[in-house]
Design a protein that fits this description.
Elements: H1 2-5, E1 8-12, H2 15-26, E2 32-35, H3 41-49, E3 53-56, H4 73-76, E4 81-84, H5 94-104, E5 108-111, E6 119-120, E7 123-124, E8 131-135, E9 146-150, H6 156-166, H7 172-190, H8 194-203, H9 218-227, H10 235-238, H11 251-262, H12 264-279, E10 298-301, H13 305-314, H14 327-335, H15 343-351, E11 352-355, H16 360-369, H17 487-491
Parallel strand pairs: 2-3, 2-4, 4-5, 5-8
Antiparallel strand pairs: 1-9, 6-7, 8-9, 10-11
């Protein structure tokens, strides 16, 4: 990672742990941190645990990125830091945020848990902030570990010492559980026992979640707020989906992380190819400029997310990493400052269907067969009354959608998968090294894969070997659109910026 980022790096047991260490180093208690409301609730509690006040930012509706132009001018003078999310791998406007933070004299932190291998502004995601954190559980698939990367190499020893002070002692039982868990989960998937396993965990009180968001428990949370900064006081919230988030790593964990990192480029190539397939469908938002990124999940925008998720589930593609409702609706004003323009975040959170690009072909077939409709773009006094204002034709041969999303002639199949060659049989590169296939719920929007429906832990791989994308698919004929330049146009009801 040092070579990839050109920065000094500290290994940490989880992305959330690294973020807490960074926040404590740079931000005095009582500070305010601008962040995305469409985000894992764990990150909200990490900010609170550091003794800071979350401030929810406006978002762009097509990819969930921060809308810097919609942040009120008076807000900037009250902030102690800005935290990006890079949701699903779609980068936030880091160059502009860097310039704004420099002008305000505050640090920029990048949460790059979903964005390893991504780029923005000619640099890797994670190379703009004073500090950035990465998960080694998402693309890497190690189910443990993270990286804290630092702009100032002289701070490495200081931050490493801070980590040491907060780490929990290594436990032999935890190492054994880490070693055998992938095999147990593989057996559960193979025997189709997931429902029974989830029910058992609930009966034992081991299920962290019943739905997308964890229980807020406001009375207990208010007591924790009074004790902050204190990571231990927030442990009931920060440990959700990853009970070993601050555990000192043993040799077995470190060995698996090393093996997985050696294969990262192979995984990124497969993710990039799958992203290309999914971004060419009628459910995708506007394609950003700069080429296809290796997204961790591709957020398709559908009219009925629950129905679409059910269609995917029938084909063995589970949907996780959902962040609905937005954090300001979830935590309310007692625990966070609400966004000044929440509608776009609510719309995106309600309609985004995060699809694993390594399951692109299976997902596209399932959505086509279920005739899943794309989401209708928002209308209202500050928005376009027609379709998505950035919309461009999905295909030069496809129907004209300039007047709105009329689908009376049936669903558009022009972007569907090519079935002439039969099903895609290429293997997920994360499988060949053994049965450890689930993504660490380090930043999960759902529970442990055995604990609740629509797990974030990668059970997508249970439906067979269709896990790769077609790298020879023709390029999407849609013109590139810069979503960060187009945010004001969307808010004001105008068309796409630049055309």
């Amino acid at each position: 990672m040092r070579e990839r980022l050109g920065r000094e790096c500290v290994y940490v047991p989880s992305c959330r742990f690294g973020l807490y260490v960074a926040l404590r180093h740079w931000c005095p208690p009582g500070g305010r941190v601008l962040m995305s409301p469409v985000n894992d609730d764990v990150i909200l509690f990490v900010v609170l645990a550091a003794g800071l006040r979350p401030v929810q930012a406006p978002l762009n509706p097509w990819d969930g990125s921060l809308d810097i132009d919609a942040v009120p001018e008076e807000t900037w003078g009250t902030l102690s830091a800005v935290l990006t999310t890079n949701l699903y791998g779609n980068p936030d406007p880091a160059p502009r945020l860097r310039a704004r933070c420099d002008a305000s004299g505050i640090p920029l932190f990048e949460d790059a848990a979903h964005a390893i291998g991504g780029e923005v502004g000619g640099r890797p995601v994670g190379a703009w902030g004073d500090a950035s954190v990465f998960s080694l559980s998402k693309h890497v698939g190690a189910r443990t570990g993270g990286i804290l990367a630092l702009a100032d190499p002289g701070l490495r020893d200081t931050l490493a010492a801070s980590c040491e002070e907060l780490l929990a002692p290594r436990r032999t039982t935890a190492e054994l559980a880490y070693a055998v868990r992938p095999y147990a989960e593989a057996a559960v998937r193979a025997l189709q026992l997931r429902r029974a396993a989830r029910a058992t965990l609930r009966l034992l009180g081991l299920a962290d979640r019943e739905g997308i968001r964890m229980p807020l428990r406001p009375r207990e949370l208010a007591r924790a707020v009074a004790a902050a900064p204190d990571l231990t006081a927030y442990d009931p919230w920060v440990r959700v989906d990853l009970h070993d988030y601050r555990l000192r790593s043993g040799r077995f964990r470190l060995s698996r992380v090393s093996r997985r990192l050696d294969r990262l480029d192979e995984v990124l190539a497969a993710c990039r190819a799958g992203t290309e397939l999914l971004q060419a469908t009628r459910w995708a938002g506007p394609r950003p400029p700069g080429g296809t990124r290796p997204l961790f999940r591709v957020p398709l925008l559908v009219a009925d997310r629950e129905a679409a998720a059910a269609a995917l589930s029938r084909r063995g593609v589970d949907v996780g990493y959902l962040y609905d409702p937005p954090l300001d609706d979830y935590a309310r004003a007692e625990f966070t400052d609400p966004s000044p323009a929440p509608e776009a975040a609510r719309w995106f959170a309600r309609h985004a269907l995060p699809v694993d690009p390594l399951r692109a072909r299976t997902a596209i077939r399932a959505l086509e067969e279920a005739d899943v409709r794309p989401a209708e773009w928002p209308t209202g006094p500050h928005r376009s009354a027609g379709p998505h204002p950035l919309a461009a034709p999905r295909s030069s041969a496809g129907p004209d959608r300039s007047a709105g999303p009329d689908r009376s002639a049936g669903p558009d199949r022009s972007a569907g998968p090519d079935r002439s060659a039969g099903p895609d049989r290429s293997a997920d590169p994360r499988r060949s090294a053994g049965p450890d296939r689930s993504a660490d719920p380090d930043r999960s929007a759902g529970p442990h894969p055995l604990a609740a429906p629509r797990s974030s832990a990668d059970p997508d791989r249970s439906a067979g070997p269709d896990r790769s994308a077609d790298p020879d698919r023709p390029a999407d004929p849609r013109p590139s659109v810069d979503p960060h330049r187009s945010a004001a146009a969307w808010r004001e009801g105008r068309g796409p910026a630049g055309g």
